[in-house]
Amino acid sequence: MAATGVVKAGYWNCGSAFLVSDIKSSLFTHLFAAFADVNSSYQVTFPTLYKLQFESFTQTVQIKNPDVKTLLSIGGGASGVASTLASMASKQENRKIFIDSSITLARDNNFHGLCLSWLYPSTTSEMTNLESLLKEWRAAVDDEAKKTSKCPLLLTAEVFYSSAIASANYPCKTISNTLDWINVLAFNFYSPGSSPTETAPPAALKNKKNGSLCVEASIKSWINAGLKAKQIALCLPFVGWAWTLTNALQHDLFAPAVGPALSVDGSVSFAQVKVFITDQKATAEYNDTYSTNYCYAGVTWIGYDDLQSVIDKVTYARKEQQLLGYFAWHVGADNNWSLSQKAFDTWDK
């Protein structure tokens, strides 16, 4: 594997209605196009509705930044995707179809790398199959590069915020030996789905109430499992969660709540949060104990990352842990590129 420089990455989510041409790619070293599909034959394909955007993704983002590297992210969190990936990984012949088609699709459309978004392998057997997939994928990527005299495709993966899911441990040694880096999804520690009766910080850097549900514990888990700091990129979520308060007068962290607000599940983009604060004249707070932002108006309470949270996380990643970098989920959720710009500038300070 070739040495990778700093990663200041962002994801474009094809379902966000955000135009690829509107991405301010000068603020990123790497951009992920999410998500490619895996069909019933285990071939990697572009989503039909967004085929043209995927095909022109690299060409489009390199207009503003000729040096930006692009990666095709495969899978995602949509219904049925995890089971398809589990089925694919369970047999060698299925893995070969997946691997070969992923490399062909990436090369044919000028991507510089690939990213596995299996959310999530959750049994011991699935972790064993993931290990086989990564070993075979790395071998195929290296073989293709030798045969074509091209630079090897970058190979990455999105992983759970912990190095173990229930009793199933990620194959960390193989991950370290086969992937250029991992994108650790250190967010969504709390949501109205997991914590319907109490507000909570969705992606706190620190958590004095439950030390396992925070960024610090997440990164520690992966490093303790054997990943090098320079193989880890930290998630900067440009999305938050909204709760409905039980009592408008109780609006701190961990205040009583009665489920989601603003959307069916409570999910909200940073751009929508900023509109909410302005339109509802909401009170915005920053809690330095948890390194998290929240706001409230009436009985609506939103936990999210704002500028100070981003500064804290990037500083933690760069100076405290010496990580490889960070990635934003997702660029279309930013507000006038304010979080992207702050992350980019903070890393270099």
Describe what you observe in this structure:
The chain is of the alpha/beta class. It folds into two domains: 7-237 and 306-347, Glycosidases (TIM Barrel); 242-303, Chitinase A, domain 3. It is built from ten helices and 17 strands. It has an eight-stranded parallel barrel, surrounded by eight helices. The longest helix has 25 residues, at 124-148. The chain is globular and about 65 Å long. The two termini are 29 Å apart.
In short:
This protein is of the alpha/beta class and 349 residues long. It has helices at residues 51-55, 57-64, 81-89, 92-108, 124-148, 172-178, 215-224, 270-279, 307-320, 338-347; strands at residues 7-13, 30-38, 44-45, 69-76, 113-118, 154-159, 164-165, 168-169, 181-184, 232-237, 239-245, 257-260, 267-269, 283-287, 292-297, 300-304, 325-329.
Q: What is the CATH third-level topology name of the largest domain?
A: TIM Barrel
Rg: 20 Å
Order of neighbouring strands in the sheet with most strands: 1-2-4-5-6-9-10-17
* Unreliable sequence segments: none
- CATH superfamily of the largest domain, by name, is Glycosidases
Write the layout of secondary structure elements.
Blueprint: E1 7-13, E2 30-38, E3 44-45, H1 51-55, H2 57-64, E4 69-76, H3 81-89, H4 92-108, E5 113-118, H5 124-148, E6 154-159, E7 164-165, E8 168-169, H6 172-178, E9 181-184, H7 215-224, E10 232-237, E11 239-245, E12 257-260, E13 267-269, H8 270-279, E14 283-287, E15 292-297, E16 300-304, H9 307-320, E17 325-329, H10 338-347
Parallel strand pairs: 1-2, 1-17, 2-4, 4-5, 5-6, 6-9, 9-10, 10-17
Antiparallel strand pairs: 2-3, 7-8, 11-12, 11-13, 11-16, 14-15, 15-16
Helix pairs in contact: 4-5, 9-10
